[in-house]
Specification:
The chain is an alpha/beta fold. Helix content is 50%, strand content 10%. It has nine helices and six strands, in the order E-H-H-H-H-H-E-H-E-H-E-H-E-H-E. A six-stranded parallel β-sheet has the order 3-2-1-4-5-6, sandwiched between helices. Helix 9 links the parallel strand 5 and strand 6. The relative contact order is 0.17. Bound molecules: the ligand CSCCC(=O)C(=O)COP(=O)(O)O and magnesium ion (MG). The site of magnesium ion has 7 residues, from loops. Belongs to the HAD-like hydrolase superfamily. MasA/MtnC family.
Length: 248
């Protein structure tokens, strides 16, 4: 494959889905109440709550059942309780919204630095990052997890701090991963033509969006990933690990 850079998804690609679902997300549910209580006056927390509030108000015009966040004029206890209901509801739907992902990234900071969480990476990831970067390829991350959450995962990973291998990080601030415009924006931002980018992901909807933007794609079949249907298998190449990826 003649490519200049790699664009990597995280969950289901570099990292197991079970790490995200069984460790990262439960951490948020477990700690949210005490995190809000202890950090309530921090500007970062107030910004996160405001972003969630705006998102909830916007969502309420488009769909039913979205738990709204109490007005900033209410008591902290009441607002915090509405934030907990809202965050749990959004996590139940596994929504990839920026406001939720920002808050999660801020909360995981403490979990990673205390050692309570360590970022999972498949065994082949570190070796591939070394090989690709030493042969002149640039490697970028594009994940629905916030840029801060991405950096924490690779900084505190089971293979140590791997941040040095990345030339940049993208999250949903550039657009959703299921929209082809996001890949065009990334291509512009890194000044690499779409057909010289190889995007690795586990999700067909992301593969289709990237492909529509002219980006090359391979789908990862990792343990625990959702099975791929025949149409997807016909359309995209698959690989089981990064060692199978041959680059020129
Ligand atoms: C890297 S942050 C933790 C994972 C996460 O919240 C997420 O949404 C991962 O989505 P991806 O786009 O990497 O599949
Ligand atoms: Mg993924």
């Amino acid at each position: 494959m003649d490519i200049k850079c790699l664009l990597l998804d995280i969950e289901g690609t570099t990292t197991s889905i079970s790490f995200v679902k069984d460790e990262l997300f439960p951490y948020i549910r477990r700690k949210l109440e005490s995190y809000l209580e202890s950090n309530w006056d921090a500007l970062e927390v107030q910004d996160d709550v405001e972003s969630l509030r705006k998102q909830a108000t916007e969502d309420a015009t488009k769909m039913g059942g979205v738990p709204e966040i109490a007005s900033s004029l209410e008591t902290p206890t009441l607002i915090q309780s509405s934030v907990i209901t809202n965050v749990n509801w959004n996590m139940d739907q596994d929504r990839k919204m920026t406001a939720l992902k920002q808050l999660q990234g801020h909360m995981w900071r403490e979990g990673y630095s205390s050692g309570e969480i360590q970022g999972h990476l498949y065994e082949d990831v570190e070796e591939a990052l070394k090989l690709w970067t030493s042969s002149g390829k640039k490697v970028y991350i594009y994940s629905s997890g916030s840029v801060e959450a991405q950096k924490l995962l690779f900084q505190h990973s089971v293979a140590g701090n791997l941040l040095q291998y990345f030339s940049g990080h993208f999250d949903t601030k550039i657009g959703l991963k299921i929209e082809s415009a996001s890949y065009q924006e990334i291509s512009k931002s890194i000044a690499v033509a779409p057909d010289k980018i190889l995007f690795l992901t586990d999700l067909p909807a992301e593969a289709i969006a990237a492909n529509e933007a002219g980006v090359q794609v391979k789908l990862l079949v990792r343990p625990g990933n959702a099975p791929l249907n025949e149409e997807t298998l016909q359309r995209f190449g698959i690989c089981h690990n990064f060692k199978e990826i041959q680059l020129k």
